[in-house]
Fold this sequence. Notes:
Elements (H helix, E strand, L loop, with lengths): L17 E6 L5 H12 L2 E4 L18 H6 L2 E2 L12 H17 L8 E5 L2 H8 L11 H10 L1 H11 L1 H6 L5 H14 L16 E7 L3 H17 L2 H12 L11 H8 L5 H24 L4 E5 L5 H13 L2
Parallel strand pairs: 1-4, 1-5, 2-3, 2-4, 5-6
Helix pairs in contact: 3-4, 5-8, 6-8, 9-12, 10-11, 11-12
Amino acid sequence: MSASPINTNVLLPALPILVVICGATATGKSSLALALAERLNGAILSADSRQVYREFDIGTAKPSNAEQNRVPHYLIDICDPTETLTLAQYQQQTQELIATFHATPQIPRPVPLLVGGTGLYIRSIVRGLRIPRVPPQEELRSQLRSLGQPQCYAFLEQIDPWSAKKIHPNDPVRTLRALEVFYVTGQPISAQQGEVPPAYPILQIGLDCANVEALGQRIHRRTAQMMTAGFVEEVAALCQKYGADLPLLNTLGYQEIKHYLSGKTSRAEAEAAIVLHTRQFAKQQRTWFRADSTIAWFDADCPDLLEQVWAKIQAFLAP
């Protein structure tokens, strides 16, 4: 998808705004964002929870060097694979970047485009989630895990009944996080949460396939392209450098290839598993984003998608 020449009558932003491009994996968010960013003199802020990590390239569908040279990209390759980027850290870095773009005296202003499929990343910015600034406490978590989930949940019911009502008794991840925040800060996590929406206007564009099978075909093609591009070699190199027990190597795509490399499956079986698991993940993403009534949806397979979205942006900018 390439940007067509800009009509001199189009509206370009004089005031700070944010454009969000979201949706399930393989719906073409990156290519649309590139074309829009060129028209808007904008920059792309990644909202992908794995593209923040260096060396995890093919399996995360990270933008190529050529694409990153076309338009400035941010929040890509900002962490080593052995580090952990928390939601609070992501939110802070993204908010600071947006503020920098909004503070420029240039008119028309360059537009930041928040692009990706990690729903919680996007929600943290669009809704201004209040997130306790408590980094993971591994020693504390280990101690709590040794007690077992039933006991941990019982503790949560005592110290933060409101959160306990929202967290399932069999959800150890959220239970541990709530306990962790309480023991570090002395306050329930429920008292530290909420929303402070940003003051600037936000336009959210969602991409989806009207036909679910069409999305499945997109996922199949992308997986095949990843394999051809050297995905197996990427995973092998990462396993050799960091060890097969690196947590990131247990995520979608990487885990399936790791099983192939260890002889548990064939290459064809690994590829088929990636397709299946990616389709399941895409279904979860669609459910998440569809719950947000503020997103304007467009068919990813529409032949004039760029022009339709551009018209939506022009209407958004109109006084």
